[in-house]
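Quick one:
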Amino acid sequence: MPDIVLTTINARYVHAALGLRYLAANMGELQPHTRIVEFVLGQRAIEIVEDLLALNPRIVGIGVYIWNVDECTRVVALLKKIAPHVTVVLGGPEVSYETGEQRICTLADYVITGWGDVSFPKLARDILDGRPPAGKVITGEQLPLSRLALPYTQYTDEDIARRFIYVEASRGCPFKCEFCLSALDKTAWPFELDGFMAELEKLYNRGARNFRFVDRTFNLKVAASQRILEFFLARMDGSLFLHFELIPDHLPEKLKETILKFPPGALHFEIGIQTFNPDVQARISRRQDDAEAEKNIRWLREVSPALIHVDLIAGLPGEDLASFGRGFDRLHALKPHEIQVGILKRLRGAPIDRHTESHQLRFNPDPPYNVLATECIPFNDMQRISRFARYWDLAGNSGRFQQSLPLLLGDAPFDNFMCFADWLYGETHKTHEFAFERLCEFMHVHLTRVRGVDVAVATDAVLTDYQASGARGRLAFMDAGVRPRDAQNATARARMRQARHVSA
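Output:
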């Protein structure tokens, strides 16, 4: 039985907690006595506690994030009620700030703020040796990256076969965007590249093919980016999938040349635009050359083989609904495969909090701490944007409405989709649990009765999208004798939405 259990609650099974693996890798002589155990949102807290206590640990370390803090709080409460002798140690961004205001921190024995790579192993040794520190809150020690053991041997064969493999070539960020915790970093710190590349080689040789880089600024140092991309180019096969976060206005020609060598669908780039409003950019300390960013996104979409996912944030201080809509339309004109409409969240410790009173930012007191209203966007409109975001993910980002969506959006994408979102919510009062067949039927009704699209044109478009999904049933609007043509097999139905974008 392990003395130390490292655990967290992931959003999905395919996610693997990189932070836990860093802790395990740096446990030193305690590593043989340490085990990683991960859970998934939706599992009952009482069952999680049962599984943890079955291991008879002396110390349980828990990674706490904005998406799992409620569930983790229930787990900690049960642990301390059932097994008070077990020492509970918390870490992660959610508990690194405002620790005195959080119930989970009150319940736990210790909280490590900031970097825990070496601070947790030291704390564990002290506890097991009978020298527990008197203070509850321990400030994490940030060592040079060269002194950290890399975590990649901690990925199991099951992880490699079934999960995303998260890696990082650098930590931190040199930019100061106030909505992000990375604004608190002094700079970005690269890992020693030769050692990192050697770890990539080992992972690849073990069968890893789905690599998710968590670097905030993958293309900051082009020489390093180039070397990493060339590594994968030399090992390219049909199963390799690579995810990176890019700085939008920094794409040198040399990097473009390398990107062009990849096959379609192998590269997935996430790009943060967040807002095109220059006044808002200045207010939140975001430096961005919009013209250069647009040029790069257009090139990536029209010339490169990469899949493009671009982020916008609604509810930033000083941005109203009209400004956000103009930004959405400006971005949509660039035709990225996905536009992620996010709602501003108050991350604990993030500098955005300085605008709370001056711009009347009213945040949800419960996770995920999303903004509910601002001086520029009242509560009812913020609710509309939230529904817009959810429906856009279903209809816009899914890649399932290649023919229908252009009819819906017309020459005013934001306004027309907001009209659809308002109408759909009015018809259903739902934002989740839409069967694809039902969504197709709603799309047809809206196109014909609200947008005024010719019935034959709308029917052909929606049926084409329906058929492309591999669905076989009949839709409510289908005329007698009209049936989906050449329905695809189960393999086609199961393909990732990225694949739908590649084929578009």
